[in-house]
Amino acid sequence: MTQKIASLKKLQESGKNIHRLPFSIRILLENVLRNHDGFAVTDDHLNTLMNWDAAGTDKDIPFKPARVLMQDFTGVPAVVDITSIRAEFVRKGGDGAKINPAIPVDLVIDHSVQVDYFGTDYSYQENVKLEYERNAERYQLLKWAQQGLANLTVVPPGMGICHQVNLEYLAKGVVEREGWAFPDTLVGTDSHTPMVNGIGVLGWGVGGIEAEAAMLGQPVYFTCPQVIGLKLTGEIPAGCTATDMVLSITKILRDTGVVGKFVEVFGDGLDKLTVTDRATISNMSPEFGCTVTYFPIDDQTLDYMARTNRSAEQIDLVKKYCQENMLWRTGKEEIEYSRIVELDLGTLEPTVAGPKRPQDKILVKELDSTFRTVLDQDFKRNYVAFDDRREHAWLNEGGSGTQFVQEATEEHKETLAANTADLRSVKIKLKNGEYRLSDGSIVIAAITSCTNTSNPSVMIGAGLVAKKAVEKGLRTRSWVKTSLAPGSKVVTKYLERSGLSTDLEALRFHTVGYGCTSCIGNSGPLPPHIAEAIDNSEMVVASVLSGNRNFEARVHPQVKMNFLMSPMLVVAYALIGRVDVNLMEDPLSYDPNGNPIYLKDIWPTQAEINETIKKAMQKEDFKEVYDVIFDGDEEWKKLEAPEGKEFVWDKESTYIREVPFFKNLPAEPLALTEIQGARVLLYLGDSVTTDHISPAGSFNEESAAGKYLLSRGIDRKDFNSYGSRRGNHEVMMRGTFANVRIRNKITEREGGYSVYFPTKETLTVYDTAMKYKADGTPLVVLAGKDYGSGSSRDWAAKGSSLLGIRAVIAESFERIHRSNLVGMGILPIEFPDGQSAHSLGLTGEEEISITGMASDLKPFKMVKVRALKASGEAIEFDARARLDSDIDVEYFKHGGILQYVLRSYLSR
């Protein structure tokens, strides 16, 4: 090869046993070997990976990805941060054009489209129109970034889902840059980033602060992982799909326990799995609990690259590099794994998962009985057979033109009581017909999520199911809200070319948008008469979706049961409209002549699917779609946005504000000072998660964030969510520690409240923090075990910083949140082993002083903590500062990782 490479083969020839290492560890080793600098990437890191211990280690390793992938919800605050850094750089006399991501960043706008309109030929256009109305301010920032920031590309709304775009277009396999060739790797700000593992690209989801560090050229640190080998044998049997396979794997790996570990797939079963089948598996890594599910590069990889219009030169580079550098799968490797788990694909059966966890596997033939069990155990209701149901509720006619009626017999005129023990059922009478809605009725059927829409086999399969159903005279049930949200426009092209779009639309599966939709909860409102019936009757209704997550209230707040399944089964269940059936035996419906139609009557063979794919999918489609991927639709082109290299902040915006972290930043970091006379803002227990800390979901007018928006003239109906306002620190800091279920031990009031001790007032956490800030009083948090566990939410650390928190003293920290605290200049401190705030006699009313930071600060330094009670009694103890490396110490000295980066720019 003419390019320079960090050679694993040479390490093998020097006596290192590289051949025994899993492929994913080899990629991490190459990364450390190539980026070794003796400071951020050291000899210790190199030795940890060269001598990888399959049994596991607690040692951290660095990772410098080739690129970063973002979606818009998490991407907006990252763009706000780097734009704010540029603004301060300009104020200090620098050239703003020099402040850009250090590595390529691809931001795909896919998280904001909602299914307000469905089942019509105008649904897509109306949903797009609403999307732009709701997100104009955010999109203006991103459109500016598209031309204002170098090394950052923005895929406009309506182009696809970030992971499918990554798989079909962005992923290179091997990168050629500055004379080097090296593996294509990435981190992403979405948990399903590992989907790209299916094409042999190592990548995973991280928090916003870690992603921003990576995009500014800093390493991401994590514990060197164990690697679980997933051995697949045989092949998927007739009647089953890749979705059945991934839901079965979810169950197996959850039972195995793979949290925080890598999974790597091997075995002869790989030879029969296409890249899109593999990507279906890799996509659900977060549901498995692992960091990645890696598929090594092989002939299947190259075949997919060719069919998706990668250049012959790129494919040749991938093959030559991987074969030269011990990264090519032959199937004859003798790799040492931490543990091996096996699945014979030939044992698969049609499968769904639910009703509220992806690992709760249910065979299709057992869904009926499972529903009955859940209805009894979770909702304390007796199942009533479909033909024996009587309506339990009488509701007056509403403005929707809908009437809810019951059978006109005297004994059934009582209104629904809250403790009714039987299955709930109402008859809904519309002006154009009537139907019965019951517990177990399906009110949402969504073909959604890149998990499945990236796989032509199940998408063409869904179209063929629809075609056969239409030919048999079947139609979707009236009460089902249907949607089709492809992950890229390539899907639309092959569905149209095959003629299957017409059949899907005949069953009301019209395209509603190109984005995540129902998979992330953007299902939109249910029709008013359906929503009213559910609420008034407290019905337990269901959704069926081809997504990857089904936690209660995630898909829709009124839907308590959510079942994951293939797009093909989504269509089938929409035809029958309820989940209390055994589709393997019960008829879906009856044709116009009264003949029963079963699932087997409309289920295509794999040969039919393959033949249709062969005719309908064309390489030119990928060229046509991705040649214009960054151009956007007419709405994007018409969107007015700032131009030039310096973003003009709109002081009236309640969505996008310049963050205060960098304003008036001194060229050199101020000398570290001890923390004196601090007050406890929160005294928390064990397992406080980032969901407790970070702003998430909706909020009302009584919250600190709500009061702020009202003061800015924003009506309650226009509050939107915390997620949509992540680009405005004023909203986000007010929502930090505002979770209604958080329990602060220094006040008896549940929720986001604290005590301002000088006056003993109980106020919101935000208002308390601002009173202390006005006094010049630093703040600390006391916590128990596993502080900051859960999803890596950057605002859990950012919001803490803005509230004035200088340190968190806890029994233990979740790894990523500890790193994020350091990245925001907050000192994580651990109580002495075996001790806690409670065992030391702390109440949270003390004044806290922390000394030992001002001089000779080094990794894991012991600091002195002194807690002074009002009585004059002092509690003193030594505790360990969790600055775990030299680079952690540097970040902390600078007040945070982004401040460290800005100063490095200024010093140049």
TrEMBL record:
Domain Aconitase/3-isopropylmalate dehydratase large subunit alpha/beta/alpha intervals: 57-577
Cofactors named for this entry: [4Fe-4S] cluster
Keywords from the named record: 4Fe-4S, Iron, Iron-sulfur, Lyase, Metal-binding
InterPro entries attached to this UniProt entry: AcnA_IRP_Swivel (IPR044137), Acnase/IPM_dHydase_lsu_aba_1/3 (IPR015931), Acoase/IPM_deHydtase_lsu_aba (IPR001030), Aconitase/3IPM_dehydase_swvl (IPR015928), Aconitase/IRP2 (IPR006249), Aconitase_4Fe-4S_BS (IPR018136), Aconitase_4Fe-4S_dom (IPR036008), AconitaseA/IPMdHydase_ssu_swvl (IPR000573)
Gene Ontology molecular function terms on file: aconitate hydratase activity
Pathway(s) per entry: Carbohydrate metabolism; tricarboxylic acid cycle; isocitrate from oxaloacetate: step 2/2
Superkingdom classification of source: Bacteria
EC number: 4.2.1.3
Domain Aconitase A/isopropylmalate dehydratase small subunit swivel: 707-833
SUPFAM superfamilies reported in the protein's UniProt record: Aconitase iron-sulfur domain, LeuD/IlvD-like
Keyword Zinc-finger listed: no
Catalysed reactions listed for this entry: citrate = D-threo-isocitrate
Functional note: Catalyzes the isomerization of citrate to isocitrate via cis-aconitate.
PANTHER family: ACONITASE/IRON-RESPONSIVE ELEMENT FAMILY MEMBER (PTHR11670)
Family recorded in the similarity comment: Belongs to the aconitase/IPM isomerase family.
Name by which UniProt lists this protein: Aconitate hydratase
Species this protein is from: Sphingobacterium micropteri
Protein's gene: acnA
